[in-house]
Amino acid sequence: MAEEKENKEVEEKEEKSGSGNKLLLIVIIVLLLLLLIIGGLVAYFLLSGNDEQADQPQQQQKIEKKKKVSDMTEIGPIYPLDKFVVNLVSTNADRYLKCKIDLELDSPELQQEIDKKLPAIRDLIIRILSSKTVEEIQTSKGKEKLKEEIKRKINEILTTGEVRNVYFTEFVIQ
Length: 174
What we know:
Structural class: alpha+beta
Mean pLDDT: 82
Radius of gyration: 39 Å
CATH class of the largest domain: Alpha Beta
Number of helices: 5
Strand content: 15-25%
Shape: elongated
Helix content: 55-70%
CATH architecture of the largest domain: 2-Layer Sandwich
Oligomer: single chain
Strand order of the largest sheet: 1-2-3
Order of helices and strands: HEEHHHHE
C-alpha cells in the first residue's frame, strides 16, 4: 500500500507539473502574440507618420512639374540666329565650338529691336562663347550656365522686352 500511495503521489505530481508546463507554454505564446501585435502597431504608426510628410513634397513637385509643362506650352516668339563658330580657350590644342542659338522672346515687338541691335548681340554672344574652355561648356550644367549668361547679357542691352530663354539647336565642340 505504501508503494501504491507513493505511485499515486508521483503520478499526481507529474500531472500537476505537466499541466503547469502546458499553462506556462500558453502564457508564453500569448505574450509573444501580444508583442507582435504591439510591434506591428508601433511600426505602422511610425511609418504612416512619415508618409504624410513625404506626400507634401511629392505634391509640391507635381505642382512644379505642372508649371513647367504649362510654361513649355506658352513659348513666346522664337528669334533664330545664324550659326556661330568660335575658337575656345585652350592651352594645348586648337579647339572650336560650332553652335546655333535661338532666342525665346517675351513679345513679338521685341523682334524689331533685336533686328536693329543684331550686330551688337552677335558680337556679345561671340565674346561670351570664345571666352569659355572646353571643360566649362562640356557638361550639361556648363551649358545651362552659358545659356543664363547669354540671356542675362542680351537682356542688359534690350529696352522694349526681354529674352525669356536661350536654346542651343546645334552644339558641336571640335
